[in-house]
Design brief:
The complex is a heterodimer of chains A (328) and B (347). Chain A is mainly alpha-helical and 328 residues long. Chain A is built from 13 helices and two strands; from the N terminus they run H-H-H-H-H-H-E-E-H-H-H-H-H-H-H. In chain B, 67% of the residues lie in helices and 2% in strands. In chain B, the strands form two sheets. Chain B has a two-stranded antiparallel sheet with strand order 1-4. Classes of the chains: A mainly alpha (328), B mainly alpha (347). The interface between A and B is large, with 54 and 49 residues.
Chain lengths: 328, 347
C-alpha cells in the first residue's frame, strides 16, 4: 500500500514534468527564442510572486483551509509600503520589505484568529476579510495611485535589481521555497501541519496544538502575501487599490495544479514548484507562440481541470490495483 | 410493536420564535431604513421601495439557487462566469442575425448547460470538492467568453429588450415581479416539496441520504442546472439594463452572492438555513448600498461593511450568543428539536 501510494505521488510529478517538457518542446519549435536564457529569466521573474505565495497557500490547504484574501493582502501591503516610500523617499528598501511583510502578517493573524479561534469556515472568514481589506486599501489610498515617479529607485530595485545576474524576485522565490521545503519536511511544526490536515481529531488526541498550527499557517500565508505585495508594487512600479484582484484564484490554481489535495493532508513542495512553473508558462509564454491572449484563460482552465481529473483517475486506478492485489 | 414515547420536540413559544436569525435580519433591515430616511427627506416613499430594487436585483437571482447549493454543503464559484458566457453568447447570436426571442432562449440554454457540466463533473468525480470543480469551470467559462468576444462589447439590442430591465408594470418594476415569482418558486421547492427535504437531508448527511434511497446524483444535477438557469436570468436582466455586454461582466458576483447567502444565516457546513434569510440579506445589502450612495460614500466602503457584516454574522452564529440565536431547520422551528448543545462542527 505504502509503496503504491508513493508511486502515485511520483507518477503525478513525473506526469507534470513530462507535460512541462512537452509544452516547452512545442513552444521551442514554434518560437526559437523561447528557451533562451533571457526569456527563461523573464518567465521566472514573472512567476516568482506566484511561487512565493503558493507555498503559503499550500500550507493553508494542507490544513483543509483556503485563503481567498491573499489578493487583497497583496494590494494593501503593497499600497502601504508604496505610500511610505512616497512620503519618506530615502527609506531603505529593506525597511519597505519588512513593512510590507508586517502588514501582511497582521492580516494573516486576523484570518488565523477567525478560523482557529472562532471556528469560522476558512472560505467564509477569508471571503469577509478579502472584502474588508480591499475596502481598506481604497480608503487609505483615497482611490489614488502611487506611480513610478513617486517611488525611489531603491524601492523599485526590490524587484528589478539583480544579484549575480539573477533577478531579485527569483532569488527570493528560491530562498522561500528552500526554506519552507526544510520547514515542512524536516521540522516538527512542519510535520504537524500535515498531521492536522490529514486527521484533525487524531492530531488533537496526540497532543498537537491544532488551533495554534492553523493560526500559524494563516499568519505565514499573510506574511508571504505581504512579501508578494512589495515585489508586485516594485515590479510594476505602480500601486493601485485594485492590484492583484482575482490573484487568489491563480494562487489556488497553481497549488491545486501542483498536486496539493484540497481535502487536506497531502501535497509536496516539489510538486508545487512544478505546478507553479506550468501555470507560469501558460500565463506568460502563450503570446510568444502567437496564441491570442484571449485564449489564455480558457487554455489555463482546461489544463487545470485536466490535471485535477487525471489525478483522480490515477488514484482510482491505483486503488483498484491495490484491491486486486489484496484479493489474490 | 411498542410505540415509542420519547419526546424530542419542544413546544412552540414566543421566545424561540423571536430568537431566530431572521428576526435579527429584520431588525438590521429596519435599522438600515431608519438611517436612510434620516439621510434624505425624500427617501421614505413607496416609489423608493419599488424602484430601488431595480438597481440590485439582477445579481439576486443567483442567491436563490446558491442557497440550495450551500444547504447541500457545496459551493459554486462559477456563477459569475456563467453569467458572462451566456450573456456574450446571446449578444453574439443576436448580432449574427438570430431573432431576439431565440437569442434569449439560447442564453438560458447555454447557462443551463454550464450548470449541467458542473453537475456532471461533481457527480462523476465525487472525490473532488465543489470548490475545485467550479474554480476550474469558472476559469474555463470566462475564458470561452473571452475567446468569443475578445475585448469587444456586443449589444444594440431591440428596444423592447431594454424595457425588460428598466420597464415596469404600473409602478412595479418587471424585474421585481420576475424575482418575486422566482423567489416564491424556490421557496416552495425548498420548503414544501420532497425535493427540498432531500436537499436538507443531503446537506446534513450525504451518506445517510444515499443509503436511505435518495438519488443524490440527480438532486445535485438538478440543483446545478437550476443554478445555471438562474445565472441565465441574471445575464438577461444585466445585459438588458446595461444595453450591451462584455466578457468581463459579472466579475466577483459569486463572492457577493455567497456573502448574501451566509449573511442570511445559511450554514456553510450544510443542512441548515431557510430561503427567507438570504432574501432579507439581499434587501439589506441593496438598501444599504442605496443609502450610502445618497451620502456619497464610496462603493468601496460598502465592501468593508459587507465584509464586516459577513464575519460578524458568522461569529454571532458560531459563538451562539449563549446558545440563543439559532439557524433553524425549517419545519422544526415551531417544535425546536432538543439540540441545545449541538454546536457548529469545527472546520
Amino acid at each position: 500500500m505504502r509503496r503504491s501510494a508513493s508511486f502515485t505521488e511520483s507518477f503525478r510529478e513525473l506526469g507534470l514534468l513530462v507535460f512541462i517538457v512537452i509544452i516547452c518542446a512545442i513552444f521551442q519549435i514554434r518560437n526559437h527564442n523561447f528557451l533562451t536564457l533571457e526569456n527563461i529569466d523573464d518567465l521566472l521573474t514573472n512567476t516568482a510572486i506566484l511561487s512565493i505565495m503558493s507555498v503559503g497557500m499550500m500550507m493553508v490547504i494542507l490544513t483543509r483551509g483556503i485563503d481567498l484574501s491573499v489578493g487583497s493582502t497583496v494590494a494593501i501591503a503593497g499600497m502601504v509600503s508604496a505610500l511610505t516610500v512616497q512620503f519618506f523617499r530615502g527609506i531603505s528598501p529593506v525597511v519597505s520589505v519588512l513593512e510590507s511583510v508586517a502588514v501582511g502578517t497582521v492580516v494573516g493573524i486576523l484570518n488565523g484568529l477567525l478560523v482557529a479561534r472562532f471556528n469560522v469556515l476558512p472560505i467564509i472568514a477569508t471571503l469577509g476579510t478579502m472584502n474588508v481589506i480591499r475596502g481598506l486599501t481604497y480608503v487609505i489610498s483615497g482611490g489614488a495611485w502611487v506611480s513610478s515617479y513617486q517611488m525611489s529607485s531603491g524601492f523599485k530595485g526590490i524587484a528589478t535589481g539583480e544579484l549575480l545576474g539573477v533577478s531579485n524576485p527569483i532569488i527570493m522565490a528560491v530562498v522561500i521555497n528552500v526554506a519552507f521545503f526544510y520547514f515542512i519536511n524536516h521540522m516538527r511544526t512542519g510535520r504537524q501541519i500535515y498531521a492536522v490536515g490529514s486527521n484533525p481529531e487524531a492530531a488533537d488526541i496526540s497532543g498537537i496544538p491544532r488551533r495554534r498550527i492553523i493560526w500559524l499557517v494563516y499568519t505565514l500565508m499573510g506574511a508571504l502575501s505581504g512579501l508578494g505585495g512589495v515585489i508586485w508594487v516594485a515590479k510594476f512600479a505602480s500601486a493601485q487599490s485594485d492590484t492583484a484582484t482575482g490573484f487568489e484564484l491563480s494562487v489556488i490554481a497553481a497549488t491545486v495544479l501542483g498536486g496539493v489535495s484540497i481535502a487536506g493532508g497531502s501535497g509536496k513542495v516539489s510538486g508545487l514548484i512544478l505546478g507553479t512553473i506550468l501555470l507560469g508558462i501558460l500565463n506568460n509564454a502563450l503570446p510568444l507562440i502567437n496564441v491570442s491572449p484571449f485564449w489564455q484563460q480558457a487554455i489555463q482552465g482546461v489544463v487545470i481541470l485536466a490535471a485535477v481529473l487525471t489525478n483522480v483517475l490515477v488514484k482510482r486506478n491505483n486503488q483498484r490495483f491495490a484491491l486486486r492485489r489484496r484479493a489474490i | 410493536m411498542v410505540e415509542r414515547s420519547i419526546r424530542v420536540e419542544r413546544l412552540w413559544s414566543w421566545r424561540t420564535f423571536f430568537l431566530q436569525w431572521e428576526w435579527l435580519l429584520v431588525l438590521i433591515f429596519i435599522a438600515v431604513n431608519i438611517v436612510n430616511s434620516t439621510l434624505s427627506p425624500y427617501y421614505f416613499t413607496a416609489d423608493t421601495f419599488l424602484q430601488t430594487p431595480m438597481t440590485f436585483l439582477d445579481m439576486s437571482f443567483l442567491v436563490l439557487p446558491m442557497t440550495m447549493v450551500i444547504i447541500l454543503g457545496n459551493i459554486d464559484i462559477s456563477v459569475g462566469s456563467t453569467v458572462a458566457l451566456s450573456a456574450v453568447v446571446m449578444a453574439v447570436a443576436y448580432n449574427a442575425g438570430l431573432p431576439m426571442v431565440l437569442s434569449i432562449v439560447l442564453c438560458l440554454l447555454v447557462a443551463s448547460a454550464c450548470g449541467l457540466v458542473n453537475g456532471l463533473l461533481m457527480t462523476r468525480f465525487k472525490e473532488l470538492s465543489s470548490v475545485i470543480v467550479t474554480l476550474a469551470t469558472m476559469i474555463i467559462y470566462r475564458g470561452i467568453a473571452y475567446v468569443i468576444l475578445q475585448d469587444q462589447a456586443a449589444g444594440k439590442f431591440p428596444k423592447w429588450y431594454s424595457a425588460l430591465g428598466w420597464g415596469s408594470v404600473g409602478k412595479v418594476p418587471i424585474i421585481l415581479i420576475v424575482f418575486a415569482i422566482c423567489a416564491v418558486v424556490f421557496g416552495l421547492l425548498l420548503h414544501k416539496t420532497s425535493f427540498g427535504r432531500k436537499i436538507y437531508g443531503m446537506g446534513s448527511n450525504l451518506t445517510a441520504s444515499r443509503y436511505s434511497g435518495v438519488n443524490t446524483d440527480s438532486i445535485i444535477m438538478i440543483v446545478s442546472v437550476l443554478t445555471g438557469l438562474m445565472a441565465g436570468f441574471t445575464a438577461l436582466f444585466l445585459s438588458s439594463r446595461m444595453g450591451s455586454t462584455r466578457p468581463n461582466v459579472a466579475q466577483g458576483y459569486e463572492l457577493s452572492v455567497i456573502a448574501m447567502v451566509v449573511l442570511g444565516g445559511v450554514s456553510t457546513s450544510g443542512g441548515k438555513g431557510r430561503i427567507a434569510g438570504p432574501l432579507l440579506a439581499i434587501f439589506i445589502i441593496g438598501f444599504l448600498n442605496y443609502g450610502l450612495g445618497l451620502v456619497n460614500v464610496q462603493a468601496q466602503v460598502l465592501l468593508i461593511i459587507v465584509g464586516l457584516l459577513l464575519i460578524l454574522s458568522v461569529l454571532v452564529l458560531n459563538v451562539r450568543f449563549g446558545g440563543r440565536y439559532k439557524r433553524s431547520v425549517p419545519g422544526t422551528a415551531k417544535k425546536l428539536a432538543a439540540q441545545e448543545h449541538s454546536s457548529e462542527t469545527t472546520p
